[in-house]
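Lecture notes, continued. The same structure-token format from the folding unit now serves as the input rather than the output. Read the line below as a description of shape only.
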């Protein structure tokens, strides 16, 4: 088991750092299965934490590169996502991902997507009950640690997919639309 803590330029800040920022103490082991080696799971990413087991699972997300209508079974997303066959988006199982195109990937779901979304919308693989504080670079064979944020202000335009259920699970988080 290789345990390492590394720091690197995390990019644009996603949390407003003041006394209102609330984190769960003790830290969590982040389950990164399904993420490719070298992938960055960014600050503010939704995570599902288990406080008893001290583990967390990251929610995968993608950005639509084409608008979706409710009857679509194919969804076009920007390159760079970590979604995989078997994951769910919008409650629909992913049955195929065509990565052969240079500009985007085409995700096929088992049934009609069920909701219309504009281009640029964020979609994701599930719900969380916390937000990832520290960005994590996935390295195969390493144990990845995470700090979980459960209160404070997050700049929502700077983070990945956040479901309505995740927002409901985080009543002490303000999702600011400030750029």
């Amino acid at each position: 088991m290789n345990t390492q803590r590394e720091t690197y330029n995390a990019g644009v800040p996603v949390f407003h750092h003041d006394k209102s920022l609330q984190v769960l103490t003790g830290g969590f082991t982040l389950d990164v299965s399904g993420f490719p080696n070298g992938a960055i799971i960014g600050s503010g990413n939704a995570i599902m934490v288990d406080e008893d087991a001290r583990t967390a699972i990251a929610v995968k997300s993608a950005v639509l590169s084409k608008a979706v209508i409710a009857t679509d079974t194919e969804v076009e997303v920007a390159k760079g996502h970590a979604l995989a066959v078997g994951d769910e988006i919008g409650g629909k199982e992913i049955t195929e991902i065509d990565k052969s195109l240079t500009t985007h990937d085409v995700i096929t779901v088992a049934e009609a997507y069920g909701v219309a979304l504009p281009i640029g919308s964020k979609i994701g693989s599930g719900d969380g009950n916390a937000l990832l504080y520290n960005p994590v670079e996935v390295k195969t064979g390493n144990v990845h640690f995470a700090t979980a944020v459960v209160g404070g202000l997050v700049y929502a335009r700077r983070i990945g997919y956040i479901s309505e259920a995740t927002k409901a699970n985080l009543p002490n988080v303000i999702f600011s639309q400030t750029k």
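Point for the exam: The two ends are 40 Å apart (CA to CA).
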